[in-house]
Amino acid sequence: MLKLEKFDFQRAFTPDYLHSVCLGVVRYTLLLVIKAKKTDAWYIGKNQMALLQLRLQGIKPPYEITRSQFKLKDIHDWKASQFRAFILYFVTLLDGIMPEPFYSHFCSLSYGLFVLLQERVKKTAVQKLAPLFNSFNRDMEFLYGPEYVTYNVHLLPHIINTCLDWGLPWDHSTFIPEWVNGKLASSCSGTQCVAEQMAQRFIMTLQLRNEALDLMEQHKLPKNVLDLLEDLICLPAGENKKFNDAKGIQIKNIKFLGRPVHRDLNPQEEHAMSLLSLMTAANDSNWEFYPRIISKYGSIFTTKCYTRSPCRTNYCALMIDGNFIFIESFALNRRSSSCLVFGYILGDVSKIVQQPKHVNLQYEDFEPIPGQTTKFEGSCGSLIAYHIEEIKIKGVLASYNSLSDTGIVTALANRIESD
Questions:
Q1: Helices 100-116 and 129-143 meet at what angle, rounded to 10?
Q2: Full-prediction pTM beyond 0.90?
Q3: For residues 318-334, average pLDDT
């Protein structure tokens, strides 16, 4: 055995949450529930299974979740990003379907993973998750049985040390390398000499890349040619490429997209603006209303009445004051450079739906973080106006009943990961 002094093998190798959590614990637990026998304590039955499938069919994720189909019959073919989306945003669909102790157990994993996948997390918040994941392991043995405590379940507490030593899971996950694997697989055009085909295509691509880079550096090329070369040699896009390529009216770090509607403010909008002390701008008649905007991070927000993407929901946003809103309109006044978003604040019923409920844990330590799963009922009675830069991040609707105006909403964990 290799012996290296002062080398800690346990902490030097990091568990990858794509495989150990998304394709590991999450997939494993869901399959346990779906494939359960009638004698199993976690059996949910055919009627409940049909109800879960019905809830999954009602999902309308935002653009950031590229795969919108979550069919139980295809769960063996789900990608890691689908399991990640399920545990972070759609785990509440199991409420009332999965038996309560098993549901609370699964939700504790959702809570812990959501905390770890934030863009910025305090060190103390990460350390508090250690007993939560240890308890998850113990409860896995207690609820399901010792034979169900797999290697991936055992790895969960080690992820805490990995975060403290190497950074948050999204910083060193294999989601991007997995994408490169797809590129390698597509480089084969036959079933013979696969390795040689990959090597030859790689060498050709590398040579083409070097020549293209030299061409881009030595000559001033038209923008359409530059874009073609960047796509051809797969140059990293960067977070601002989508924003820069979008065609629209740019004010500050926002671009207004689509054809504007020129009109005066209605009384509700004037009242909402008065709360922002913008009465001078409110009296101005040069207002333009747009159906979409794109932020500097590449996130596209739409109004609630936008119908061009019926299978997507991009009109829910978390504001910097911690409120979720449904966006009614985007308003721009070029004369005063006023950029506003009008919407209705969602009525808060309860926060942290995935709050850990383990008896042996002091779950008051697990404080809610802005944007975590919230049940809402109805909305604020009056229209609210915000400065458009007060939009913090997009919200994901796990479920929404338009008749009763109730549902469950969660903010995107971060703006770094994408499918």
A1: 150
A2: no
A3: 92
